[in-house]
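Action item from last week, closing it out:
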Amino acid sequence: MVIRQGDTLPAVTLRELTADGPREVPLADLLRGRRVVLFGVPGAFTPTCSARHLPGYLELAGKLRLRQVDEIVCIAVNDLYVTGAWAKEMKTEGTIRMLADGNGDFARAIGLEDDLRKYGMGLRSRRYSMLVDDGIVREINVEAPGKFEVSDAETMIYQLDRLR
């Protein structure tokens, strides 16, 4: 079942690479009492993710924070070392938190796992964005396969403005 508006996000553990090494990030703890924008990408270093999706959130992070967003989180179905290297290359530190869903547990739990084996990429995540308040999905935008039209930062700003 695909996650929908009004659903509670599952309690999964993601991972991140910090200056002190690998760290587990229980999603429920990250979201508790906070407004968070999550966006998911099929993979670090992939063309649309690196050229458009992540850069859009980097560019508009300040505008999102002005709309009472506590944190912006990018989730990729990669191991934490790949996600960490991508974060370093894209200069996300202090702006976007980069979390690894290495086994695709989160993507599977929210019904957005994407089988990209025919392209040699294995099981990944569909591209999406969501606004989460205290663990509850308030807005969700899931892209059609191969598209990048609704999960961008501009759409999220529009949705935040509409909620005011």
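Closing note: The chain is about 30% helix and 30% strand.
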